[in-house]
Amino acid sequence: MRVLERGVYRGPHIYSLRPMVRFVLDLGTLEAWPTDRLPGFTDALLTLVPTLEGHGCSYQQPGGFVRRMREGTWLGHVTEHVALALQSLVGEDTTRGKTRSVRGRAGVYTVMYMYRDEDAAFLAGLLALRLVDSLLPPELRGVQGLNVLYADPGEPALTAEPFDLQAGLAALDRLARRTSLGPTTGAIVAAARRRGIPVTRLDDHSFVQFGYGRNARRVRASVTGLTPHVAVTAAGDKDLTKRLLADVGVPVPRGVVVQDEEAAIREVARLRGPAVIKPLHGNHGRGVGLNVRTPGDVRSAFVQAAQYGRQVVVEEFLPGKDHRVLVVGGRVVAVAERVPAQVTGDGLRTVRTLVEEVNADPRRGGGHSRVLTRIRLDAHALSVLERAGLGVDSVPGAGQRVALRQGAHLSTGATAIDRTDEIHPENASIARTAALALGLDVAGIDLIAPDITRSVRETGGGVIEVDAAPGFRIHLQPSKGQPRDVGGAVMDLLYPPGSRSRVPILAVTGTNGKSTTARMVAHVLTHAGHTVGFTNTSGVYVGNERIHVGDATGPKSARMVLSHPAVTAAVLETARGGLLREGLGFDSADVGAVLNVREDHLGLRGVDTLRDLARVKSLVVRVVSRRGLSVLNADDPLTAGMRRVARGRLALFSARGLEGNPPVQEHIAAGELAVVCEPGENGDIIVVYEGGGRSVLMPTADIPATLGGLAHFNVENALAATAMCLGQRVPLETIREGLGTFTSSFEQSPGRLNVHDAHGFRVILDYAHNPDALAAQRELLRRMRRPGSRLIGMVSVPGDRRDQDIRHVGASAAATFDEIVFREGPDGRGRPRGDAMRLMAEGAVAAGFSPEHLHFVLEERDAVDATLRLARPGDIAVIMPTAVEAVWQQIVRYRPDATAADTTGEDARVDEDTA
Known about the structure:
Layout: E1 2-9, E2 20-26, H1 41-48, H2 64-71, H3 75-89, E3 97-101, E4 108-114, H4 118-134, H5 146-149, H6 165-179, H7 183-194, E5 199-201, E6 207-210, E7 217-220, E8 223-224, H8 229-235, H9 238-247, E9 255-258, H10 261-271, E10 275-279, E11 289-292, H11 295-306, E12 312-316, E13 321-328, E14 331-339, E15 342-344, H12 351-359, E16 364-365, E17 372-373, H13 379-387, E18 401-403, E19 415-418, H14 425-438, E20 442-449, H15 456-459, E21 462-467, H16 473-476, H17 486-494, E22 505-509, H18 514-527, E23 532-536, E24 539-542, E25 545-549, H19 555-563, E26 569-573, H20 576-581, E27 589-594, H21 610-617, H22 619-622, E28 624-633, H23 637-640, E29 649-654, H24 662-669, E30 673-680, E31 683-690, E32 693-699, H25 712-726, H26 732-740, E33 754-756, E34 762-765, H27 771-784, E35 791-795, H28 803-814, E36 819-823, H29 835-846, E37 854-857, H30 860-870, E38 876-879, H31 884-893
Parallel strand pairs: 16-17, 22-26, 22-27, 23-26, 27-28, 28-29, 29-30, 34-38, 35-36, 35-38, 36-37
Antiparallel strand pairs: 1-2, 2-4, 3-4, 5-6, 6-7, 7-8, 9-12, 10-11, 10-12, 13-14, 13-20, 14-19, 15-18, 20-21, 23-24, 24-25, 30-31, 31-32, 33-34
């Protein structure tokens, strides 16, 4: 077997709407060895990974996958299921995957499976391949290319021979714990996903964004974007916290701050009772000494506390039980009694053995990675045992409780008992007041109370600390009592009822017209009052500012828009390349539009036919939300056929009018939305049909980008843009105003039908890059040309197109222009320099174009200059650019009299051998 490549679908993709990792696997000779031909393979695999018995596979019931293996399935499919199972064994629960053969490549498969963490998922794939390989007959073993799948395993045991599954699982568990969200952040994220709120991890730890655009909110663990910094600072100073609480009547222990042992001894004596000594700025119970009485105890406790800062708090020790009260948004949402780490003797086993048994609980882990923390027999534990006259090898009597910690923090191994329904109303009020006094939206109030069901004002007790970043573990799975949805309480705080977590997402795809349609929609939505973030081939824009330069039609650019805090609506041009490489950059769209499916980019990444291409582009309407709108071109058969998979309401647009157009007529008769171009008294008009009504939007000639109605392709784009805006309930008047002020100027639509008339001839900058776009351009140019004028074109095509597609572009150019300047693209994409020009010339000549009027220039800047110098007064020179801005500036700055070079000489041509 050999791993050929890997990747990640971080959003919905053509195989599934769920994010998945993928790798391409070449089975090689193992293509002839399905599982039913491998004696003992299935049983051996089930012995090592028995949870595979529960996989339903295509039978959708437990045992289905085992049945598939016994019937015979390919090892790529087996690897998919093993990778899922291994992730689940370390707590990364995932359930779905797919394995698909790669068309035209025998024995090559794309293996895909869901993930929670990318790195852990790839490591699970490596381990799955190693495990499957280890169960094969010796003569069939050997996996190549594992470094492609997981470049740095980090441990020799992962690739060493023989394969050790337990060592691999241990490494996977360590990686998963290091990269996965902790219990607190995980609870908030889970609550968000239950509500359908988008979740984006912003780092490898606990920094997470919820929602999109202006409605996005962020948390780091339990600190939210609403938490005031001044409140966190105040809570971090224990002495200041007590003073602020005492000022509003919250009962707190008496105490002072000291900086040396002698002062601590004096203050403990002054308190006339047991004391607590702790760092002024400590956390998680570190350096805390409880029930301190004698000068010797004071000195020992002071040294321990001083490790965490020179300033140390000495305060009275409040007797009672330790409670954590969680206050979120001014409400008490959970209460837990914390029980210090301890074991119960049985008269037979030692303290050490009892601790090992407690730590074997699968809920316990290291640090904060699990619901409970393992108990450590460290110096503090030994000291507590010594005070009780015990050691780690002592055997406590049956039923004897042995304390191992003074404090009751979960990070030191404590357990919890839920007391949410038992807290006395006055105690709850004290906790709420404490949080409000500090200004915390999420606060953990440490309340000492002999009896939580009675007021501490009556029984004694009080608030000893306030945590500005409380952990939720204690409330999520208490050792006793009911778990509490504290993550849901935080989401209620961030998104109160009726608030929105998302911004409208309008996604558009198609072979031609995407950029112009997206710009039209963004322009209209700006008129509607939105701050629009939109993406296209020129870059990422927010409002009137371009924040990123370059082709921005993929998922990364979409995420950039959706993360921007100013954006109130997102308009996303969505191209084929990003869909195939990584999927979508969003989980669902409010409006999805497919403009057309035409021949372009075929033969790339498994997209060989127009139906393949249609399947890819249909993803944009397959992710439309239930209440959203799918917009389809009724005049394009492959696009119109997507109505079978489109979600939400359906809108059709058509430039053919209603006569002889039954599909649109039936759609309108059903009361659905349609936007149609129809003949009017003084030219074509755009008409909107919906709910049995008919509304005239405007004459097509009133849209400047149509050049008085001559540019039919921009009429089609305006139809689509109108339907998309109606999907967001934009009033017709606003749409009319927006389209009526949308021009084809370079400023509003760079590289799309930009006209410059300053040189005595007309120059049009227009990115037509496939035969259909060239045909639409040809139709417009024939309407625009004057008698006796010539059409001159600078034409290129990316090198990753098929030979026949490049020749077709040449033939299309030949049908349009009188003079053609062929140039090479900036990136041959694997082709020899000049090869694309050669193929275009072959297509042009085969179409009957005279070689005398063909010109070949390698570099774009030289080709632009050559094209402009070919033009005479009255001519139209069409330039199809790659570097749009640089070419436009070259056009604007061109001076016809600045050069005297012969337009037929070597400056304008490259010899045929070079071409």
